[in-house]
Design brief:
The chain has 215 residues and is an alpha+beta fold. It contains eleven helices and six strands. The protein is 50% helix and 12% strand. The strands form two sheets. It has a four-stranded antiparallel sheet with strand order 1-4-2-3. Strand 2 and strand 3 form a beta hairpin. Helix 2 packs antiparallel against helix 6 and helix 8 packs across helix 11.
Amino acid sequence: MEHDSDGFDPETCERIARMIEANPAYWTICCELIEHCRDERTEEEACAFCEGQRTSQSQIQSAAGIVGALVRSGALSKRVFVDGEPYAGTLEELQADEDVAEDAAVAVTLASTLEGVAAAADVRKERSFDRLVAPCPQRRDAFLAVLAACAATPRTTRELQDALKGAGMLETEAARGIDGLHASYFTGSLESVGALAWNGKAWAATDAGRAILAE
């Protein structure tokens, strides 16, 4: 396997990006956690941060499971300490190591790898708002209108449909009076880039969505 001169492995980076993209409900959590762990964190801190990043009731995977997936993919590196000193083996090996006292203080830390940081940046770029609207710039105002409405207060799909209809943003076919678009097109697209989240009853703008409005 080839590595760059700085130790960066492009294949690992691509594998991490594929893993994140294969789990679209968790891509924002994964990217935020990788960013958070650019400063080494304890495993407990990483899991707590992960829990705080949930935006949807559909995100049911445990924080430990998300962390584990990022470790296995190479996005996060894990270090084990015994009584404040680095342990050469894995946590599993430590648990079977009879030379380690039962009352030893064990700590596990996590830190982002170069490949993890790069993969997260690639995923963010692919799922950016600008990339979303690039193929249909004429719909940018409609996307922003949906975001603004959901930033003011959570909105149902029906409420958004009525608002877009009233603003003439559904690309209605005048001759037949048929709407070319539906509010679900906008909400689904904005959810895919992490700008909207479904709270179980309505759509709400996320911090990322508010940041888009602030640009």
